[in-house]
Amino acid sequence: MAMAIFAMATPALSLQPSLPLHNVMLHPCFSTPLRFKARSGTGIFCVLQQQQQRKEHHDRKRTGVDWGCDPLSLENGTLLKEWLSTEGLAKQKLELERVESGGRGLVAKQSLRQGERLLFVPSRLIITAQSEWGCKEAGELLKEAGVPEWPVLATYLISEASLGRSSHWFPYIATLPQSPTSILQWTEAEVGTWLSASPVRERALDCIRDVTETYKDLQATVFAKHPQVFPAKTYTLEAFKWAFGILFSRLVRMPSLGQLALVPWGDMLNHSPQAAAFLDSDQSNAKAVVFVTDKSYESGEQVFISYGKRSSGELLLAYGFIPPELNPHDFVELELALNEEDPLYDAKLAALREQGLSSPQRFPVRKDGLPEQLIAYACLVVSPATIPAHFSQMAEAATQAGAGLDIQSILSRDDETNAYELILAVCENSVADYSKFLESNEVQHVDVNQVGSIPRTSRHQMLKELAVALCQAERRILYRLQHILRTELRTLRSKSTGDSFIGTYGKKRSNGGLFGLFKWNVDFLEKY
After folding, report:
1. Per-residue pLDDT for 33 more than 80?
2. Mean per-residue pLDDT over the chain, rounded
3. Where's the SET domain (predicted)?
4. Residue of 4, 21, 430, 20 whose CA lies nearest to 221
5. Fewer CB within 10 Å, N or C, the chain?
6. Closest-CA residue to 257 (of 152, 117, 172, 130)
7. How many Cα atoms occupy the beta-carbon half-sphere of 445 within 13 Å?
C-alpha cells in the first residue's frame, strides 16, 4: 500500500547541513551486558528531588511515555559519558553542567583555542536509519513497508526505549527529556491562543497535524497488522510525538555522511545564533563525529554550535526555545493575495501558477529590507488592465529563480506607489495584530528576560514567555519595514519626473535605493 504521509517533510524547516534539526543508532536483542557501572544505589534513572519527582510524574502523565528524564538531570548525562567512554569515546575537554539557558550544556574544562577539534564520538555510537534494531522483526517490517527515514527513526526510538535496560541504547535514552520542548508538545488550542498573531501559527499547526497523520498511517498499515511486534500500549500517538520531538531537537544531517543521525553527547551542545561551528564526521577519520571551535573559550565557559541559520520562529518550532540574544537570522512572513474582485484576477492567477506561485503567497522579510520577490508580487497585484501582457514577467520576478529581473520598464510611478502602499497596508495590519496580542491583559506583564531560564514557574508561564518573545522579535522587523516603506513612498510621491527611486528591485542605485535607505536610518530604527 502506498504511504504518502511517510514522505512528509520536516515542519517547514530547511535542514541546514550538520545541524540538529540540533545542527542538521542501535542494536538487536542485546545479549551483551551494558559495560558501565551505575553509581551505587542510584541506577541509571534520574535521582530527583521530591519536587522534580512530582514534575516527572506530571510529564509522564502529559506525554504518555515511561522513559527519559527531567531536562535538568546531570546524573544521567554523567552516566552516559561514562558508558560512552567504555565504548570508545575519547577523553573529553568538555563537561556537562547546568547552564543558565538550555538547562544542560557542555562547558569547557580548560581553555580552548579557536580551530580545535572536539568530541570524537565514534561513528558506531551514533544512531541512523541503518542502525541495528533491538527487535529485529520491527526493523524488517518497516523496511518491507518502505517507510522513510524520519518515521523509521521515530519508531526506532520508541522500540529501543520500550526495551528498557535490555536496549544497547538504554544509557542514551535515559538522558533524553521525557517532555521534549518542541511544538509537538503544544496542543492545537495552545498554538491558536499563544501564536495567534504570528505566521508561525499555521506552520505549527501543520507540523502537529503532519506528525499525527503520519502516525495514523503507520498505525493502519504496519502497527495494527503486527500487534505482537508493535503493542498498542507502547506505540501510541503520544509516544510518536515524543519521538518526533526528540528528532526535531537533536537530529543532525552531517554533510560528509549525507545522512541523518543522533549523536549521543554531541547533542548536549546548545545553539547560539552567533556560532558557526557544527557537527560533522572527521575529514581525516570518517569513523568519528567532531566539531571545530569557531572561537576561543575560557575554562568554565559554555561551548556552542549552530543549529543552522534559523529564525526565532523556526527555532521555536523545532527546539521549543527563543534565543535570549539578538538573532541575526530572524525574519517574519508577510502574506499578499490577489484581489478576487479584480477583473483580471484569473489572468493574474494563471501567471502566478505558471511560476509555481499561489494566492495568497507568503514572503520572508528580514531586518535588512524587502525581498525583491515581494515587491514584484505586489506590483502584479496592483497592475492595471493596461498591461496584462506583462503579468508573466512580473510573476517570474516574484520567484526565487527570477530574482534580479528588471521589470522597471513596464511599471509606471503609480504602479510602484500602489505596490508600496499595498505592502505598507499589509505590514500595518500585521503590526496591529501583534500589538493587540502583546498589549492584552494576559501577556502585557510577561518578562521576556525570563525566556530560557530554568526552572520556570509553570508550563503555562513558559508558553506565554515564548510567545511574547517571538511576537516582539517579529514586530520589531515590521516596525523597521514600516519606516522603510513610508520613506520610500514619500520619495515616490515627491518626484514627478525622472528615473524611479528603485531600479531593479532590491538593487542599490546611485541614490541609495531601498536598501540604501535602510542603512541610512539604522540609528533611527534601533529604538525599536
Report:
1. no
2. 80
3. 92-308
4. 4
5. N
6. 130
7. 2
